[in-house]
Design goal:
Blueprint lengths: L1 E9 L4 H12 L3 H4 L2 E9 L2 E8 L7 H7 L4 H10 L3 E3 L18 E2 L2 E2 L1
Length: 113
């Protein structure tokens, strides 16, 4: 399983709207086309955390597949709907990949890294 975590800012009052936008998006064919198998959304003290999951057999460049879908109409629609609900975590944000969290430790039962 591969994961990517994206971080932005969100007013917790927008959580229901953000979840609705993603639920609508997840009913399109785009997640399956790019190998997304799961999504989890979290909020904490004004932060928005978005965990995207993909099966390992899809390859290890999940973030690249998400970025490559950037011109897909389903992607553009969700991006535009979220624009008024989410804000960049940092003013230096220059695009989707600059909102990706960096994994620095991973553990699984039976092994670790």
């Amino acid at each position: 399983m591969h994961h990517v975590v994206f971080v932005d800012r969100m007013d917790p009052g927008h959580a229901t709207d953000v979840a609705r936008v993603w639920a609508e998006h997840d009913r399109t064919g785009l997640p399956a086309r790019i190998g997304v198998t799961g999504r989890k959304l979290f909020h904490f003290n004004g932060l928005y955390l978005h965990l995207v999951e993909s099966d390992a057999h899809q390859g290890d460049d999940l973030a690249g597949r998400i970025l490559a879908a950037g011109r897909d109409p389903d992607y553009v629609e969700v991006r535009d709907h979220l624009a008024g609900l989410l804000r960049p975590y940092s003013p230096d944000t220059s695009g989707l990949l600059s909102t990706r969290a960096t994994e620095f430790y991973h553990w699984t039962a039976g092994g670790g890294r």
